């Protein structure tokens, strides 16, 4: 019964989308799905959903279990018998969580800001302005794409050390502030804009910056959002680079702090579970809040490039 | 002040295309500004490109011929010594083998499963945005967080061993986190799980380009779902599939955090399960560190990751012919 209802709603939905944007027609399924197919689809969707977020729920559940509850039962108990936030309080006693969160945020703010501002400017310049040497510069950016970051991580550490930034958060934040990939993503986004929109502005006497701000930038907001989200996630989740740069506990980012926590309290799974949830929940919230922009940006072609 | 560059599209416009407003600004300060503007806007990105990509590549090659230390101090030229050590080092051979096995198991799983999931979420059903977002969640989580979750689940007394014993699939617990190949396999399961959503999105974008008309025509001709998938969908996403195959290979060769966390930084008993990047990291720190050797390992790693890229280029050029 519900399946039929959902089928009708699906047709309405897709019909609505189709009239709104001609582009969306492409993603609409052809024909109308029978109720049998719908049931199978939803069963499969729920199955994949279970696999995707099950492990997170398991960890969340463990973090809420009190010390009197066995967390190693053979038949998993997803619902905590006596839910408690004790483990979270214990994490705060064990490691300076707020300092680590602040450190991670510091790095993230630098990298999101740097990538959004400078990749956008560079991408715009390479795609919309004509000047001598442009193709060489594009070639340089493309060529460095084949370098895996890990292959230059030692030399980057030496650079940071020689700048006197070893064991500092600035040293962690600096190299990732303008990522080649983001410059090329912005280049791609600006490149596909029709040339005509610029020419009108040129005739009106707009200079390069005005055209950037008023004409081009509003058309690539989706890609900018994708870059901002990816930069934040990248900075928040990064592990290897801060592990190499940082040595003092008061400079640790959250991922390094978490590794320290799991190394020091390896027998206390509830504590580790609570710690990992502290690192995971903020980024999950950020992503959930921005997912609309993210998927829209991806549809715009942000990731295809 | 009027700056009036003509916009450059993807490629330089052919000669003879009208260039509005260009002539009046041929001379004078405006022209100099016009010339400088692109470079001013590019300056930060170019600076970063040189300081954090191009210079380190050159410096890596230079350091590979020295005995540079993590804490600084004098460096000595040591010729090809570091490369000689690589050939004799059993740990390097082990790490290479681990990384390659890891890659070969990840490759088919992460090329095929995300396509199936993309087909599942392609249709705009009610609630599909929720499912897409949820399927993407493992991608946004830190590898450290995910590896800690896996460590707990794959523990001797953890979820997987407990459930498998309860269901009598296994008699005793399997040493997922201590046996060399089980560590590699555990890291594969984690990587595949974490990568599904990422590659799903790339397939989803590619599926948007599959011709609906062709699909409908095939259906009219009586082609079943599987037949349509094989002869309409698959050829249309072939490009995305090749790209993903290479991305999976490169990502697999770069694996670090997953194995590092699951083995508590040790890489298993005697470092048997170390990966290439873990080896580089081990030599990057402290008094025992050796940046010269780590640089030589980095060069090795670069060439290893080049292999899948060259294979892709080869396949691409062959299909173009």
From TrEMBL, chain A:
Q: Which PROSITE patterns match?
A: ABC_TM1
**Entry keyword Transmembrane helix:** yes
Gene3D superfamilies, alphabetically?
Answer: MetI-like (1.10.3720.10)
GO biological process terms, semicolon-separated: transmembrane transport
Keyword presence, Transmembrane helix: yes
Chief location bin: membrane
Q: Where in the cell is it found?
A: Cell membrane
Give all residue intervals belonging to the ABC transmembrane type-1 domain.
Answer: 101-290
Q: Which UniProt keywords apply?
A: Cell membrane, Membrane, Transmembrane, Transmembrane helix, Transport
Q: Where is this region: Disordered?
A: 1-20
> Where do Basic and acidic residues bias regions lie?
1-10
The superkingdom listed in its UniProt entry is Bacteria
Q: Name the InterPro entries for this protein.
A: MetI-like (IPR000515), MetI-like_sf (IPR035906)
According to Swiss-Prot or TrEMBL, what is its membrane topology? Multi-pass membrane protein
* The family this protein is said to belong to: Belongs to the binding-protein-dependent transport system permease family.
Q: What is this protein called?
A: Carbohydrate ABC transporter permease
From TrEMBL, chain B:
Spell out the Low complexity composition-biased ranges. 1-14
Q: Report what the protein is called.
A: Sugar ABC transporter permease
Q: Which GO terms describe its biological process?
A: transmembrane transport
Q: Where is this region: Disordered?
A: 1-31
What membrane topology does this protein have?
A: Multi-pass membrane protein
How is this protein annotated for GO cellular component? plasma membrane
Q: Name one Pfam family in it.
A: BPD_transp_1
Gene source species: Labedella endophytica
Q: Which PROSITE patterns match?
A: ABC_TM1 (PS50928)
Write out the similarity annotation.
Belongs to the binding-protein-dependent transport system permease family.
Q: Where in the cell is it found?
A: Cell membrane
Primary localization: membrane
Q: Where are the transmembrane segments?
A: 39-58, 100-121, 133-153, 181-208, 229-253, 291-315
ABC transmembrane type-1 domain spans which residues? 96-312
This protein's superkingdom? Bacteria
Q: Which UniProt keywords apply?
A: Cell membrane, Membrane, Transmembrane, Transmembrane helix, Transport
